[in-house]
Amino acid sequence: MIRLSGLRKSFAGIEILKDISFTLDAGNVLSIIGPSGSGKSTTLRIITQLEKADDGSLEIAGHTLFSSVGGKAVYASPDEERRIGLKTGLVFQSFNLFPHFSVLRNIMEAQRAVLRRSKEEAEDKAMQLLRKMGIEDKAKQYPYQLSGGQQQRVSIARALALDPEVLFFDEPTSALDPELTREILKVIRELAEERMTMVVVTHEMHFARAISDWAIFMDKGVIVEEGRPDDLFGDPKEERTRKFIASFDD
């Protein structure tokens, strides 16, 4: 589903990502862990087209978004970029809901604008997803009337409404207290059980170990170590990985 190779990215002359490469099969879950500033979120933003790569290549569901030509990332045509973009969905840590739209309209809007669905189709899809998230009764409310956990569930529903083939989560529980965190992790676990292809950037170590098919530890813009979750979390080979994981067990 995803084949990323040799990804590089710099900001203001400082290299943030250095030769990031990984693959992800359909139906699998990849967790990416690492300290703040390690490049995790930038990697997700490049894959979901919120940032441009400097170099490297990326295929999503067999379609090439960019490839390396002469040491630079050359992107597909704008039409192809848009088609590839529809294959991915991103759930932000800060919810990013439209405050002046109701919950229902937040989930309908992109369906109408991007997929050109009718109002009836978009509303049916939105209500279906709200039921799935357990917040059907919040459809007419506005984001400020919801708890953080409910807002994040709306964000997940909004991402799913566009029928992505891969769903990305960027620290989806970082703004939530422990009780609300459990709510969101339950939703992600249920999606994993349905074999939704996902990439999850998280600091929830035990959750990442339980839910993932593969895990990556990043630090200072490089992949320090990767492997099966039981190996990476239970018996890491690199000293830097061991110290990072141990810091969550103190």
Strand content: 25-35%
Assign the structural class, choosing from mainly alpha, mainly beta, alpha/beta, alpha+beta, or little secondary structure: alpha/beta
> Which word captures the global form?
globular
Count of runs of 4 or more consecutive helical residues? 9
Q: How would you describe the overall organization of this protein?
A:
The protein is globular, with a radius of gyration of 18 Å. The protein starts with a strand and ends with a helix. It has helices at 40-47, 78-85, 103-114, 119-133, 148-160, 178-193, 205-211, 229-234, 239-246; strands at residues 2-11, 14-24, 29-33, 55-60, 63-69, 72-75, 88-91, 166-170, 197-201, 214-219, 222-227. The strands form two sheets. A six-stranded mixed beta sheet has the order 7-8-9-3-10-11, with helices on both faces. A five-stranded antiparallel beta sheet has the order 2-1-4-5-6. Helix 3 (103-114) packs across helix 4 (119-133). It contains nine helices and eleven strands. Helix content is 37%, strand content 28%. With 250 residues, the protein is α/β, with parallel strands linked by helices. Strand 1 (2-11) and strand 2 (14-24) form a beta hairpin.
